[in-house]
Design a protein that fits this description.
With 244 residues, the chain is an alpha+beta fold. It contains nine helices and nine strands. A five-stranded antiparallel beta sheet has the order 1-8-3-6-9, with helices on one face. Strands 2-7-4-5 form a four-stranded antiparallel beta sheet, with no helix packed on it. The two termini are 34 Å apart.
């Protein structure tokens, strides 16, 4: 179900403050076992275009050690996490893959709140087909500016995935944090205002008024969904901006 606060742009202020750049590094089949290293500040976004595969991870409390992907899907690793793709040598699955560099690395507010791994069937994301069709066509033959355009299209795919996650946080494995706050209509108004005007003299009363709630109800909902007080979140947001 789409969020009723459709008039609020919940992402632009975040992405304007903390840029993300995509870099295409593979297009085509992957056969056998392909290993992807965990490098500091490095994220991965893979698109399984066709076929099936198994993904494995070293022992971790964050993700399952073995995941079977049986339909075209996005696989998004927002933080460094080593992973291996296992594909049949004959029926190798077809991929396009990119690394993502989020400004601020692991301290980026979005990166901190995202799940360690998101596996999302392509069919679930509205409007993704058109972007992927253009992205695939750009990677199938060499043309002037192909790599630059492919990088920008990967960033569009990321944005469309984040839109989906804001509207389906629980389905995406997000239980608490910035994403769940932005998924709440009342808190989304406040968080967007904080992101757009971090230097404003925000008081608890002002934030609660912006949300259309009493101070006590606002403070309780904010802490319950984001895991910290409004004042602490604002302080962290300002610090993140200063550090970037």
């Amino acid at each position: 179900m789409a969020n009723p606060e459709s008039s609020i742009d919940r992402l632009s202020a975040l992405l304007e403050r903390f840029h993300v750049r995509a870099h295409l590094f593979h297009a085509g089949p992957l056969c056998g076992v392909t290993h992807f290293d965990a490098l500091p500040g490095r994220s991965f976004l893979h698109v399984l275009r066709r076929g099936e595969m198994v993904v494995t991870h070293r022992r971790s409390d964050k993700v399952k050690q073995k995941i079977a992907v049986k339909e075209p899907s996005l696989l998004f690793y927002p933080r460094p996490l080593a992973h291996d793709f296992h594909n049949a040598p004959v029926d190798g699955a077809d991929f396009i893959c990119a690394t993502l560099d989020f400004q601020g690395g692991n301290s980026n507010p979005l990166v901190r709140t995202l799940p360690a791994l998101l596996v999302l069937p392509l069919s679930q994301v509205e409007g993704l087909d058109a972007t992927l069709h253009l992205l695939f066509s750009e990677t199938e033959r060499v043309r002037c500016g192909e790599r630059i355009l492919a990088d920008r299209l990967f960033e569009v795919v990321l944005l469309q995935m984040l839109r989906w996650l804001l509207d389906h946080p629980q389905a995406g494995g997000v239980d608490m944090g910035l994403i769940t706050g932005l998924a709440d209509p009342a808190l989304a108004r406040v968080l967007t205002a904080l992101h757009e005007r971090p230097g404003h003299a925000w008081s608890l009363e002002a934030m609660a008024h912006h949300a259309g709630m009493s101070r006590s109800a606002f403070a309780a909902r904010f802490k319950g969904l984001l895991g910290q007080t409004p004042a602490d979140y604002l302080a962290d947001w300002r610090l993140s901006i200063a550090q970037s």
